[in-house]
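W.,

You were right to be curious about this one. When I first looked at the sequence I had no strong expectations either way, so I just let the prediction run and decided to look at it fresh. Below is the sequence, 271 residues in total, followed by the output.
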Amino acid sequence: MNLKKITSLTMMWVMLVMTYTGIMLFISPPGRIANWANWKLLGLSKESYAQIHSTFMALFIIMTLIHVYYNWNPLTSYMKNKAKEMVVFTKDMLVAVILTVVFLVGTLSGLAPFSNFLDFGTGIKNSWEKEYGTAPYSHAELSSLKMFVKKMGYDFEKSQEVLKSNNIKFETTQSLIQIGDENSLSPQFIYNLFRKNFEKVGQETIQLTGMGKKTISEVAKTLRLSNEELIIKLKALGIDAKEDDKFREVAEKYDMSPMDVIQELGYKKPE
């Protein structure tokens, strides 16, 4: 066997795997949605994709170091002039450095087309919410059944009856995600069962998580308002906003958090 060949071939497969997992992570929903809905794509969860990406990154680093070792002479030759003198910043090296800096600065500064690309990814991620919804409060899936029904104001005894009538095995000390895993269900499915039994039409709980990442238009949809209604309500609070503005940026402009604004509008998260 030839270690040099093995290294190059391994790097090829690692790049293919990391490209695939990178794309999956780019289009996957935010963690708050993925965990709540037990999101999976082609049989793997977001956490699984992240784990594979991380371990293959480590393998890629190791293979890269070995690759550099075996190809040290060709690499250093790229940094020599016609007189075979070592010149680190050759024209080729300068182009490589400039390209790297442009991508780094462009990404951190939010300049186009980098911002457009990232906004495209954010749009895909947020689109999953339309299909799966979000938890009624942050990390609700980690709350024990007893704590969850208490926060939501549901009757504890009836909540247990609802689960039993649907043949769902549970312990009141288990978290929603543990109950879901044991019964091959998502925390969202369990929550929807409770909503069906406890919430009357017109009195449904509005899910207020992840509001900061949304645009004003998306926030209006979540609050079941038209864009115009929300903008008018914000105006009454002394807050100017447009449909395409990011909700977090609007709130921070007035030294408030997104949840501060939500509460000023008269909404309240479960405690």
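Here's what jumped out at me. Residues 3-27 form the longest helix (25 residues). And, maybe more interesting for your project: The radius of gyration is 25 Å.

Coffee later to discuss?

I.
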